[in-house]
Amino acid sequence: MYHSMYDSYHWMTTFGDPGYRSHQATGRLVALIAARLANADVLPLDYEAFGTELTRLVAQLDSGIAKRGWNMPTTGLRDALARFTASARVFAAARDSARAPDASRLRAVNAALMRVERRLTRRQGLVSRPWYTSLQFASDVDNGYATMAFPSVNEAIRHADAATAERELADLVGRVDDARGALDQAAAAALTGEGAPDRPHLVAPPPTAKGSAWLAIRVRESRSSSGTPYGPPCAPRRPGSPCLSFTRHSSATTPAGTSSGGSCSTTWSRRSASRPGRGR
Questions:
Q1: What is the pLDDT of residues 199-252, one digit of tens each?
Q2: For the whole model, what pTM was predicted?
Q3: CB of 279 within 8 A of CB of 246?
Q4: Taking CA atoms, which of 39, 100, 103, 214 is between 20 and 30 Å from 137?
Q5: Residue 202 falls within a domain, yes or no?
């Protein structure tokens, strides 16, 4: 039905989503995510899962290089991503152990976190698309629906340009290490208040691309008669109103299904956005 002559208002209201219940649920979920991001003291970003996912995707580069018959190891990128993921783990521990940080410390932490993915961009963009500055993910230049990981390297492999692929691979390693530096600054700020933010890179934030990171969300419904949440960081405005919290996972895959505990229920889902860490 999708994108066919039969994909009409009549089909949607009769067969696809009668009453538009799925549409409404999606809208509410997005609103909850936006509220969580807007009200979090520390940006709920899970860069440990992000690093784990990027490491898994290096296999795509290995496959393309092998098909070309090139001798071009990706060990440097894997090592850089391992360092990145280790720093993300240190930051998560620092964030979770911090107790009532002051406003200036929170600003330093968040400023550092905002620099992480900006350091995985570059002003000149991709060779094929100078306006596309993200080096993490991009839409496939030949297929707008598909996502290409590490596009600067992958596009060079696709065009059989070994010299460019090797140069782009080295550039990517350096940028991953730069991003790791921002995570180290965030951890220092969370623990001691030191590591004040330097001037942000004057580049546009990376464009959104499907699959660019993972978002694990936990929707909790308060049962308290007073509207008091049963666990942080929920803060419903009225009894029974939904709220949102986040939980980190060591795996890049979010468990599906529901579980219940006490007086609230937990529903898990997965979306293609930044995968946050555990809110406090």
A1: 333 233 333 333 333 333 333 332 333 333 323 333 333 343 333 333 333 333
A2: 0.67
A3: yes
A4: 39
A5: no
